Amino acid sequence: MSDDDKSVLRAPRGMRDFYPDEMAVQNAIFSAWQSAACRHGFLQYDACVVESLDLLKRKAGEEIEKQIYSFQDKSGRDLALRPEMTPTLARMIAAKQGALSFPLKWFAIAQCFRYERTTRGRKREHYQWNLDIVDEQSVSAEAEVIATAVSALSMLGIGSDDAAIHINSRALLADLLDGSGIPRKIHGAVFLALDKLGKLTDAEVSASLESAGLSKENVEAAFRIMRLETLDEARKLLGEETESYRELLSLFSMLSHYKIDAMARFDISVVRGLGYYTGIVFEAFDKAKRLRAIFGGGRYDNLLQDLGGKPMSGVGLGFGDVVIAELLSASGRLNGISPTRDLALGYMEEAQRLASMAAAEQFRRQGRSVDLALRNQKAKAFFSWANKSGFVEAAFIGPEEVLAGEVRVKTLEDRTERSVALPGC
Ligand code: HAM
């Protein structure tokens, strides 16, 4: 096979194929997302994967804007594969704002595309579970979306030993920066520095802050803020209980009533790369912080009005399939997840084909999933295939079974058998 032929057989870099075994894992993740969202009263929505480039550019953060897969359609319209769902959600709500009832709780499982450098946990295409609550000012919205994500994690076997939710507030950061005399117009530079903390050296962070226009005293003040470890330390530096501080305090108290406070912690370094967040922001990471964020989100106040809608505040998160699959695989929790194969039904001769079809249909009407052989075969070959393929049960119909009007259904794990009457045909 030539190199060209070989590369045609591979999915494009960063894109993924799902063979049935991988699809079983994917379905387990989707099912946890779906169940947790339904358990918490979110309604499902969906939208086209192709969006107008203009909408995405207006609403995406600077980093995502560079990663957009864009193209022109045959009429020259500028379109793109969505890199995230939030601009689309805002567009859909703004378009029907008068007809929808609020506060609204919606979820989607959206395929998203970002032209990123591919690494562990980072692909060019991923599925993202989006949970959003729109038009609720109180932090009960933040508590509810975080608790819903934690429900999904727990359905997948991930608890406080494996992951932690790091919570901060852009409003609290702004209050801290204001209090330290750092002008509003350069707050953005400090947010950026926080995002780079740990990835760059302190000297590099200082240099970038100075080049963004911060004085030496400002840089020192920024570092004092960036080194805050607890919410209490933040209050002391603020010198008073600001609204942003009280909101965070109240969120932590709510999370303790959801019994998930063991997973939650204050973390001044969480700012989120996306430009539209205005209040509380959060990210969940594996305990060792080896992977990219499992999920991330926060409050956005201006998205709807920026699209011409009535002003409404929203809170939401995106939870990707790639990082959680890595985490599940690393902790051995994917062992045993394989496509469900219930009952295999085979037959010896062409003469038993129709009776087998009628039997399969009888089992299916009882709610069983039946894989009926497409052609006749020897019993030995049939049972060997059924065993190898991981079926729970297998039954084989020969002339004797048709004559007796019953078939033995074998449980493959313990080799026990039971007789089941065949339908008259
Ligand atoms: P985000 O932090 O850009 O937020 O993405 C959310 C999650 O999607 C990440 O934590 C990660 O699990 C996953 N993810 C993102 N990019 C990739 C990638 N290239 N490969 C694999 N996984 C990835 C948002 O997109 C916001 N729109 C979330 C949101 C919804 N905020 C409010 N509502």
Q: How would you describe this protein?
A:
This protein is α+β, with helices and mostly antiparallel strands. Helices cover 40% and strands 20% of the residues. The protein contains 17 helices and 16 strands. The chain has helices spanning 3-8, 20-39, 53-59, 62-66, 86-95, 140-155, 170-179, 187-196, 202-211, 216-226, 231-238, 243-257, 303-306, 321-330, 353-365, 379-388, 399-404; strands at residues 43-44, 50-52, 69-72, 78-81, 104-113, 125-134, 163-169, 264-266, 280-286, 295-300, 314-320, 343-347, 370-372, 393-397, 406-411, 417-421. The strands form three sheets. The chain has an eight-stranded mixed beta sheet. Helix 8 (187-196) packs antiparallel against helix 9. The mean pLDDT is 93. Histidyl-adenosine monophosphate is lined by residues 84, 86, 114, 116, 122-123, 126, 128, 130, 132, 274, 292-297, 316-318, 320, 322-323.
Shape: elongated
Oligomer state of the chains in this structure: single chain
Query: What structural category do the secondary elements indicate?
Result: alpha+beta
Low-confidence runs of at least 5 consecutive residues: none
- Considering DSSP H and I runs of 4 or more, what fraction of the residues is helical? 40-55%
Distance between the termini: 51 Å
What is the topology, as strand order, of the major beta sheet? 1-5-6-11-10-9-7-8
User: DSSP helix count?
Assistant: 17
Mean pLDDT: 93
Ions, cofactors and other ligands present here are: histidyl-adenosine monophosphate
Number of distinct beta strands: 16
Strand content: 15-25%
The profile of the biggest β sheet is: 8 strands, mixed
Radius of gyration: 28 Å
